[in-house]
Design a protein that fits this description.
alpha+beta, lipopolysaccharide transport protein A fold, 2 domains, six-stranded antiparallel barrel, 16 strands, rod-shaped, transmembrane
């Protein structure tokens, strides 16, 4: 009985000719070629790159440091712009009217003021008709003043605001005044009315036929005949009455 043919690898399977061995050794042998020296042109290019690197790298580092230093200011400006964009996003234009109008400026004493309205209609380059106008003013002494009404007309060039219909004035010292009309010279800080007025505050109450308030000069004038009722904490009965002229 004969054994089956042996399928295992044999030494003869890996046999190579001398020519094959020589070619393989030549490929594996280290190259005998010497490294070529750079010519003058290559050396000049390398020197130029080194000179540029000496200036560019420090300049880049300084630019990065400057960016880090000014970034807080840039971030503040971006935040301010985002706030402005949000305010502008609230403004809508419908049928030629500006909804949610806001006007900011400064008076002749460089005091800021702000006029807002539920809606505004631009009649021309000077006149603007307002619905539910509100004026926020600062006086020379730092007092805060708020005036609102049903309707108004703002003359932009002269900075005059004419208010009509349930005019209400409130000052941060507790003074509140009601009148049907009032004219505000925003630039000079003067509020006046030729119609009746009722004023109430810590002093008491006052009814008059007109008034003038010069905010920056601290002047308040009321036109008579009128009636003044002063608060008197010393007595529990009614306060004394007087006439305003």
């Amino acid at each position: 009985m004969t054994s089956p043919e042996d399928k295992r690898p044999q030494r003869a399977d890996f046999a190579r000719s001398e020519e094959t061995i020589r070619r393989q050794r030549e490929r594996l042998a280290p190259s005998a070629q010497l490294r070529k020296l750079p010519d003058a042109a290559k050396l000049a290019r390398r020197r130029t790159m080194l000179r540029w690197a000496k200036w560019v790298l420090p300049a880049t580092a300084l630019l990065l440091l400057a960016t880090i230093a000014v970034w807080p200011e840039v971030d503040r400006l971006l935040s301010a712009n985002q706030t402005t964009i949000k305010e502008l996003a609230k403004v809508k234009i419908e049928s030629g009217n500006l909804i949610g109008a806001t006007y900011r400026g400064v008076d002749e004493h460089n005091r800021p003021f702000m006029i807002t309205a539920d809606s505004a209609h631009q009649v021309n380059d000077n006149r603007m008709d307002l619905i539910r106008p509100k004026a926020d003013l600062l006086t020379q002494g730092g007092s805060w003043l708020w005036v609102e009404s049903e309707k108004g007309v703002y003359m932009q060039h002269a900075q005059i605001l004419d208010l009509t219909g349930e005019v209400t004035l409130y000052r941060d010292d507790g003074l509140m005044m009601h009148s049907p009309v009032a004219d505000i010279d925003v630039k000079r800080g003067i509020i006046a009315s030729d119609s009746w007025v009722r004023a109430e505050g810590p002093f008491g109450s006052l009814d008059a036929k007109g008034y003038l308030l010069a905010q920056h000069e601290g002047i308040a004038q009321f036109r008579g005949p009128g009636q003044l009722i002063l608060n008197d904490d010393r007595h529990s009965d009614s306060a004394p009455k007087g006439k305003a002229s």
